[in-house]
Amino acid sequence: MQTSHLILLSSVAQWLARRTSDLMAAGSLPTTTYDPQVQPAPATQPMTIDRDGDPVQDNFILSVASIFCCFILGIIATLKAQNSRDKLSSGDISGARRDSADARKLAISSIVCGCIIVVFVIFLPLILWLAGVIFIASR
């Protein structure tokens, strides 16, 4: 933390200690002690780390995005990514890593298939139509 935050925290802790001692002297609080040095551990998001020290990624967002490119492969990739999350939460890191890799491969395959479909459905007929127009105009 920055120095200004520490100064602010220590001044708040001192004020709280004075206020508590004043209230205890008045008899409105039970006698307890406050130690400003004891602080709770910061709340962090749990992350599972494998033996290599790398966090296991489930590729869920990539697989959901790939649904828009090729529906069937995207759905299968999303199911694999969800399996990866489930295995990760149960502690099966090797299974989670395997399903994560499968989900990534399927999602990338879905995106590639979507690009190929776009080329064949939109651009190829457009190019053939333009070639036909040019050929007819040249006669």
TrEMBL record:
CC per GO annotation: membrane
Keyword annotations: Membrane, Transmembrane, Transmembrane helix
Keyword Cell wall biogenesis/degradation: no
Entry keyword Transmembrane: yes
Membrane-spanning segments: 60-79, 106-137
Localization in the cell: Membrane
Family: Belongs to the CD225/Dispanin family.
Name listed for the protein in its UniProt record: Interferon-induced transmembrane protein
Organism: Elysia marginata
